[in-house]
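User:
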Amino acid sequence: MALAFRNVGHSFGDHRVLSGVSLEARQGEILCLLGPSGSGKTTLLRLAAGLEALQEGSIDLGGALLAAPGRDVPPEKRSFGMVFQDHALFPHLTVAENVAFGLAGRPKEQARQVVAERLASVGLAGFEDRYPHTLSGGQQQRVALARALAPSPAAMLLDEPFASVDVTRRRALREEARRALKAAGVITLVVTHDPVEAMEIADRIAVMEKGRIAQCATPEELYARPASALVASLFGEAQRFPATVFKGEAVTAYGPVPAENFADGTAVEVIVRPEAVTLAAAESGQETFNIADIRFLGRDWLVLLTNAQSPMLEPLRARVSTLEGLETGAAIALRFDPCGTFIFAA
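Assistant: Predicted structure:
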C-alpha cells in the first residue's frame, strides 16, 4: 500500500506551483514534505486530500486512482485522516465526542473502546469528559490527532500540525505523535517548514524547492549527502558563503576549501556546519580571524568569527567543546572538516 504522486503539476493562474512531482509515501511510513514558503508542499497535500482539483499527473492510493485531470474522488471518500494547525475541534462536544465524531454508525460499545484506545495512544486517557477550551494547545492537537486516527484511515495528512503549539511542548508533542502514528501503521504525509521537526518525526524527508522535489531520503542521508545547496543549508545550522574556485580550492572570506571537481573561475556556494569549523592557535604565516563573540549553549560553546577585510559578511559560526585558548577579541586560525562542508555550483 502506498500513496503515490505521479508527475504532478499545478498552477494558480500564471503562477507555477508544482512541476513534475513524483513521490511515494509507503505503508507505515512517516514522510515529511519540507521546504520554504512557496515551495509547493501545502498544495501537494491539498491535492492529495482532494481540496484542490488535480491539473496534471495522477494520485493513487494502493493502486486505486484518486485524482487525474477530469477525475477527482471526493475528499470524504478518500479514507484520509487530516490534522491541521488550528485543531478544528468542536467546542460544544467533549473530548470523547470529538474523537467519536467519525465513528457514526458503529455500535456504541465499539466506538467507546476505539475512543479510549486512541486517547490512550496520544497520552490523554482520562480526558474523555473534558471540553476543548479546558485543554492546552498541545492537548487539543493530540485530541485532533486521535480523532483523525479513530476511523482507521488508510493515510494521514498533517499540515504544520505543531506550529501553533508552545515551543516548550513542541518536542514532546512530536514524539507522542510519532509513536501514535507508527503504532497505527498508517501512511503519513506531514507538511512542515521546520528541519528539526522533520528530522525528529520523519522516516524520510522530501525537500521541496520551487515546486520540485530537490531530494527525498532518510534524515541521515540528507544530512550526510545533500544533493543541493538548499538541502545542505537546511540541516545542522549550516551557513552559505559565496566563493570562487582557484587551483582546486573554493576561496571564501574564511579561507579555502578543497574543490577538486570544479574548474578554475567557477562561482560556487560553500555550505559549512558549525561543528565542521576547527579552531587552533595560528602558526607563522597563517591567516587569522577575530573572535567576535562566545556563547555558552549547554553541551558546547558557539564561537562567532569575523574577517576584518569583510566586515559586512555574516560571522562564521563554530561549535567547540572547550574554550581553552579562546577569548573574545583574540585572533585565531581555522580549518574546515570535509564531513560538514559542502560545495555546489552557484
